[in-house]
Fold each of these.
Amino acid sequence: MNKTKDQPGARRASFAGVGHFTSALTPLAIALVAAWPAFARAQADASSSGNALPPVVVSAQADALTEGSDSYRAKVATVAGKTPQAIREIPYSVSVLTRQRMDDQNMSTLEDALRYVPGVQAVDYGDGTAYFKARGNLLGIEFDGVSTVGGLQYLQQFDLAMYDRVEVLRGPSGVMDGTGEPGGTVNLVRKRPLDQFHVSTETQIGSFGSVRQVLDVTGPLNKEGTLRGRAVIVGSDALQSIDRKREKEAMAYAALDYDFAPRTTLSLSAGYQVNPINGLDYGASGVVNDDQTALIGRVPSSYSQNFSPSWNYSYTSIQEVNANLVHRFENGWKSQTNLFYRHELAKGDYAYAGPGATADGLTFYGDQRQRSTYDWFGADTNVSGPVQLFGQTHTLTFGMNYSLLTNTQQSGFAAVDGPFANGTFSLFDPNAVPHVDVPFTYGANNRIEQYGFYTQARVHLTKPLSLVLGARLDFFQQQGQTFLPDASDWSTQAQLNHRFLPSAGVVYDIVPWLTAYANYSKFVAAQTAVTFAGIGLPPRTGEQYEAGLKGSFLNDRLSATVAAFRINDNNRAVTDPDHPTGAIPGGKSRDQGVELEVAGQLLPNWNVFAGYTYLNVHYDNDAPNLSDGTDPKHLFKLWTNYRFAQGMLSGVSIGGGMLAQTRISRGVEQGAYAIFNAQIGYRFNKHIEASLQLNNIFDREYYVRPPGTFYSVFGDRRNVMLTVRSDF
């Protein structure tokens, strides 16, 4: 059986070392906490002697850091440009998931985070990965502003303990990121070292049988404070909502900032993470009718059923290094260069069910073995600064970026005969599926390269009116080569040369607290499909139109945004009606809708987030070829937390939220559902607090990913999580 995007990818194996890693956290924490105060005392001595350097900006993104803000609202973001920009002045829909909200909601994975971003669908793949969509299209990714081709979808990501915030721009971002899907861009911004000693810990215990420990230490490393460091360590061992599924994690992150001079800073960081999963389950496919031409239903025995044999496993490891050099000139201009490298190994050995199943739960099983490696390299260099012209101050940015992905994948598949009719097995007895030796029968090398030159201008026409103009010249190439079962020469699957990608936005300050905006942006997405004659298809092309209002309320503590958008997508590859083995660029889609978001503080100790999205996805010409059916028409997300500051309840916090969506379908329909969560916490003193969170209060049974011809993923059942945090 050939592997497609809808089939399991290479995943993770058992890793006994995680247990040793977790047990080693305690002595390591003691050593780090004991050693670091010496550096803090040296810094204090230097300050009192008058020899300390003037305050410096510790990283390129320091102005946008959300750590320590105690708010769900971020005032600035970097995802729409290369420097921090006020969100109210960005003529696009931008959401920022702050460190405070990640902590309050006990988020540990990128899937946890994006599931609570307005308009974003985070669809679990069942193996520790997911795919992410916004406005009916896939999302791209940046790491601290470095655009990375193919770095998000169906891939394991680092633990969220590594990041200060998650920024999401919805809609095409081709000027900064180049060729790609028009859904938008996720920018993951790493934590940076702080200029004062600080240590925090987090311990979580879940009712499924999970334990997670986090240690975070930061502070100055020399008496002048010009060298600062940070270390974050995470270990977890968790049983899951699905029976017999167990996932472990070990993550280490380290960062250094060094000020060569008050205006020049070099930042270095590195991360390492492993994620083994035992009892990996891709779920069951839908029930088919008697002639196996349509899906008619589903077959869960319970919503904790594991439909895979207990010997299933997968394993992922990620290594990453980064460098950032920033210089601020005396005239307000700034130059910065970022380098990024990541290596990922993903392997797995597992059996899965399908295609289809009978009404009494009989289906075929096959054993699959896979191994894939990924290597990403990214670079971005730019200069930006103010220009005085016609009595107004304008901002210009010029830069170029480069992204390279090389990937090697190997896979093998073996059908196995079962004891029932036609060699089927029972979905309710997956341990009857034997573990057989599966050799690799397919192997391929892939290479995706993209680079481009970009510019952005923020032109202030009058005091309340601004134009934001952008342009990019982009180059893209995708190549492939097989080495199993037979070796082949490298071939070019998609190529785009000197593609021009423009964007334009207008921002108007109606009153000091209310801003109107509109934008136009164009996108280009390369396609690898070919015609019946073997000729590559032209790229998908299209544009987005968007308009909205952004408001600031309650002394700038609370922000609100409403936006209306339309994305036109042309030349989509669809099956050739005259030659079913080929494709033609005849598909079109129109994604349009409305988004609303509120984030911030209703009171200084009361945080709230709410987001609503209406999305209408319309396809022309062969709709089943173009949609996976996981885009709900209505999507609502809410989270709030209130901390009592005085009286008998001083120190108590209460919170909760919900996620609700309308029906989706991948052949089998998942009806509308709502999930409710609640939380209560108590701060014992200024250093220690604890919270107890009840998730899925009403134990709603639902699919995160409803069944198709293959696979399905259940949502988590009702569970409880105890979290204890310390802060010194």
Amino acid sequence: MYISKFSAFNYRSLKQVTIRFEKGKNVIVGKNNSGKSNIIRGLDILIGEKFPTYIHITDNDYYTFEKIDLETGEISEEIAENFYLEIELEGRDVDEDLIKSIKKKTAFSKVKSLKNLYEKLENNDILINYDFFQNLDQIENREEIDVIGRTATGYDIKTKWHSSNELLNLIQFSKIIKLFFSKSRSEEEKNGYGIIIIERDNSIWISHFVPKKLRDSLITTTVISALRSHKEDLRLVHYTWFGKLIMGLWNKNKGIIEESSEKSYEQLIKEKSKEIKNIVDVVFDQQSQDIKLLLEGAISHKSVNFKFINDTKNELYKNIQLFVHDGIDRPLQEKGTGIQSAIIIALFSMYCNNYHNSSSLLITEEPELYLHPQARRVISAELEKYIEQANSQQRQLIISTHSTDYLKNLDPYCITRVYKDSKNNCTVAKQLDIETSSQITTELKRFLWSTNSELFFADKVILVEGGEVYLIPTIVDKIYSGKQLLDYDNISVIRVNGKGSFLTYIKMLECFNISYLVLGDLDCFKDEVQKISKH
């Protein structure tokens, strides 16, 4: 599966945002503090390694805005009372074995209408039924739920319990699958994490809870955040993808027999660890005895040890650490963030290739951070490999970036531009519509990739036919006695390579809500001005 749509309401700067995502590679661009990180955080809450109900939510996670008292003129800070996050999933390539291993039945109730969940108002605002989403354990008693049968004693049946096989069938033959999370700010216990399934006959089912195995069977996600954390990204515990990778490689190879000793590698490691323990005991003997004497009167114990490694039974793999030798052999966490990013990407691809049976999503935030130009292109190539190496799997990549390197060979239809609406202090997301996208020729795309990808990062664009691209910045600096004045105003001068391309660029810039000015030669008045004016 892959994420085809992400929606957020009252989450951080995302007052009301819906973003379309495509298969493969997707890129989010925008200035600092425009909301890119909030989109990634929202995705991580819904489909990341941690269950949403275990994530610490604070007031900072709710949309905040300034409110002016019309009588006194006093400005106060208002914080939204609820937020709602939702993703829609396309494709039905789930991990069937994982779903079949779910032992307990999963409860679903039938919703009367989508309007019982959310409704679009005349001003295009979406009204979310927060109380419904945040009380999933009580939905049987709600009027939004349909009656699906009646007991022999005359009681209405409003819940259907699905076995693992019935659950698999429901998912595979569904029309729409959504995962959602909603949280109340003032009432800590009010939150809901569930799945909405719309069948082909348009019947709407909502789960009372989401089994972890069900969530994991849909898609596996890792997020490489801009603030790299080795301990967070590569946690060596049994439920993370990295823990599963290391445990899988360990179990796969630990049984191999060393010919000279006829012992397994694990047996040899345990024997050597005993030797190491004896040496360490000698080094710290006096200190161990001192601690033992200190504790004897208070705690029942036999001995105190200093250890090099944790030799707990069946968990030897948890002693594994990654080291990088680049002239000096050091743990990965002591290397630069660029090296860390490259290795995490490679490891996640390895996990997907060897130990993952369903779809995977890699989200990376500003992968260009702290990297020189060639290294940026290497990381870009590694991300492309992650997509290309998938065989039967559905893989998706979502990148937020300030670098044009990650737009190369990317269809503009897969670009999302985000910016701040200063009036409402909220994030706005803009993308190409399907009609405009169809008008962008392959030749124009190549020119965008090679020369003009900067325009997606601009606030304003001056469109020119040719050589003016070099003249205009110099003329502006000369007139206003400054240097790089267009750069300071985030204005780009873009060469369209022929007046016939003006209109396509205009339509594209309008989709992204980027202001533009067209500067053409006099012969533009023959044809192009009429086309532009008509548009």
